[in-house]
Amino acid sequence: MIPYGKHLVDEDDIDAVVDVLRNQFLTQGTVVPQFEQALCEYTKAKHCVAVNSATSGLHVACLAAGVVAGDSVWTVPNSFVASANCALYCGASIDFVDIDPDTRNIDIDALEQKLLNAANLNRLPKALILVHFSGLSCDMQAIHRLTQVYSIVLIEDAAHGLGGSYQQSKIGSCVYSDMTVLSFHPVKSITSAEGGAVLTNQSQLHEKLKLFAKHGVTKDASQYQGESHGPWYYQQIELGYNYRLSDMQAALGLSQLKKLDVFIQKRSELAKVYDKELADLPLKLPIVQTQSQSAWHLYMVELTQHQRLDVYQQLHNKGVGVNVHYIPIHLQPFYQQFGFKQGDFPVSEHFYQNALTLPLFPSLTATEQTKVIDTLHQVLL
Ligand SMILES: *Cc1c(COP(=O)(O)O)cnc(C)c1O
């Protein structure tokens, strides 16, 4: 079975992890700061806090944004549940903005309208969490303009986005946002097994992110109440969590980061082959955006004439492991208690009905890709 996504770990990645195992520190050593520094250099963001998953990263980003009980956070239904759960972890409520059918990212007109209504009712969200779906950047400049008007904290869930760019900047630069969250889960652009990071250009947010990800504990005397008792001293000044990444994971991430541009190049070449070879099929293919370069986390097609379940099963029977992204979050059973129902976000629901994720990863061979393309032709024509 050809999977929809797969990590690519080489001998140099393995050596980097083994080096850590032979050294003094498995965690809280020097490799995590090196990884953070390298992520800053790559994205041009000023600050980075590595964490043990994007889910943890989204949680501390919400905490740093000041999201508390009684607040509301908005995101899109077309994402993994973590994009919404982080608001609930903070005791806030969640609401959604539907997606644009072509970019499959947040619908900016719908966002503008919803903000206008919310402003009239005095129910503006504290934070907006954007998803660069499939690796294609949202129109950050347009969204930033709106969130500035209403003083809303803008958080990018860039779990799909590392290696992609928007205008002249890499996703993660935080040029138009307050914070950007990355994931290093094995199916994402690069992996640290489990892992994530939060990027920001604001030193105040950076301090908060570090605190919330590390027990709310500080060793910075300037933040103390009262005097230090001595060199061993620390103070807990917030309720934080242990969301640290280990040095073993950071070593893998750091080694992978060196290959990120090669991975993205490979993904982008494979995507171009799909664009060309699938053009004759009854499918809606991903759009090409001129102001951004996708990280090509996912290559998603929409069926226009066929039943998705039927096509999915036929492809799996023939060894092509397509997948589906995403079951709209508002339709999950857990989310029904908040009053969401079928029909609330019709574009996300329609996309989900017809979507298929084709195999796309840096080590996908030409032979494998040809098999995917040929099998799609057999099934759809
Ligand atoms: C993968 C993913 C996450 C969660 O990432 P983890 O590192 O596994 O916690 C969050 N949001 C989106 C959009 C994702 O694709």
TrEMBL record:
Q: Name the keywords, alphabetized.
A: Pyridoxal phosphate
UniProt xrefs under InterPro entries: DegT/StrS_aminotransferase, PseC, PyrdxlP-dep_Trfase, PyrdxlP-dep_Trfase_major, PyrdxlP-dep_Trfase_small
PANTHER family per record: DTDP-4-AMINO-4,6-DIDEOXYGALACTOSE TRANSAMINASE, TRANSAMINASE
Q: What is this protein called?
A: Spore coat polysaccharide biosynthesis protein spsC
Which segments of the protein form a coiled coil according to its record? none
User: Would I find Iron among this entry's keywords?
Assistant: no
Q: Which domain of life is it from?
A: Bacteria
Q: Name one GO molecular function term.
A: transaminase activity
Which parts of the sequence carry N6-(pyridoxal phosphate)lysine?
188
Gene3D superfamilies found in the cross-reference section:
Aspartate Aminotransferase, domain 1, Type I PLP-dependent aspartate aminotransferase-like (Major domain)
From the UniProt record, give one GO term of the biological process aspect. Answer: polysaccharide biosynthetic process
- Active site positions: 188
Protein family (similarity comment): Belongs to the DegT/DnrJ/EryC1 family.
Q: Which organism is this protein's natural source?
A: Paraglaciecola arctica BSs20135
